[in-house]
Structures are given as C-alpha cells and as structure tokens.
C-alpha cells in the first residue's frame, strides 16, 4: 500500500470514527467502537472502498496510533468531536506536558488558556518533540509547557489515551509557560 493511499484511508477513518459517523450511516457505541465489517461495508456503500488488509495496514503503520482494534471492532483513540466515552481512567501526569500551537493563537491562549475547541479534551504531549510536530501541522510551531503537576495537585483530571496522548478538559492560563520571545 503506497503512502498516498495510506494517508487517504487514514483521513477517511478519522473523519468517520471521530467526527461524522452518521454521514456514512454508522452508529458508534458509547465507547466509540464499531464493527470493522460494518465500517468497511458502510464506506463501500458510500463510494469509498478499502479492504480489511488496507485497514490493518493503516492502523499498524500510523505513527500516532490514531486507531485501536479490539477483536472485531475499531475506534479512534482520541480526538472525537462527537459524544463518546473512551473509558479512560484518571491518570497522574508527569510534572510537565507540552502543547504545540502557532504564534497567531498565543493572544487567545494567554487570555483563555487551552480549550478543547471542537474536541472533547485538550490534547497534550509528553515531550517537546511530539508537541513540535503537532504545532507544525498548522505553521511554524510554538511549544507551550503545561505545569501538569500543579494542575493535578489543584484537582484537574488527566487521562492518557491508548496512544499516549494526555487529555484534560482545559488548561487555565496560570498553568502555561510560554517560550521566551512569545
């Protein structure tokens, strides 16, 4: 499977497992799961065909492990804009987590902190390198440090998704550390 096809199938899966399952007639269960055969059939019925082998390749090859397979079911690991309960237990975060963004967002972040926007949670990375890659998707990245230890001590809940992304409802401005010059 070539890289272009892998990306195309991955984006299709993200759209329909995270944001718009109803668009192709899917109904996800409360945890975001759907039967793989149902997904493949629904996609084919709506003009986008892929095989089980292609699906398995996309899941295995995705560097961010965006999808999880459990038995005969699949779901997105996080990033949903639809109502799902991933069933992730609360977790104690490391002292600092990181968030990649771009400079034009900094004024709003200084005023309001990090908000989930159209997702359920704010996504945070365990290391600067990952946060840099995330921020670079939208332009020149700026990496913010999040005092996750202080947030946790102050009662904020954190969860860690199956692919290592840290999730929290919001990050108030007082817990953010901006790089010099920003």
Automatic annotation (TrEMBL):
EC number: 2.7.1.-
GO biological process, one term: tRNA splicing, via endonucleolytic cleavage and ligation
Keyword Transmembrane: no
UniProt-listed InterPro entries: Ptrans_KptA/Tpt1, RNA_2'-PTrans_C, RNA_2'-PTrans_KptA, RNA_2'-PTrans_N
A GO MF term: tRNA 2'-phosphotransferase activity
Keywords: NAD, Transferase
NCBIfam families in UniProt: PRK00819.1-4
Family as reported in the entry's similarity comment: Belongs to the KptA/TPT1 family.
HAMAP family reported for this sequence: KptA (MF_00299)
Function, as annotated: Removes the 2'-phosphate from RNA via an intermediate in which the phosphate is ADP-ribosylated by NAD followed by a presumed transesterification to release the RNA and generate ADP-ribose 1''-2''-cyclic phosphate (APPR>P). May function as an ADP-ribosylase.
Name of the featured protein: Probable RNA 2'-phosphotransferase
Organism listed in the record: Streptomyces cellostaticus
Gene: kptA
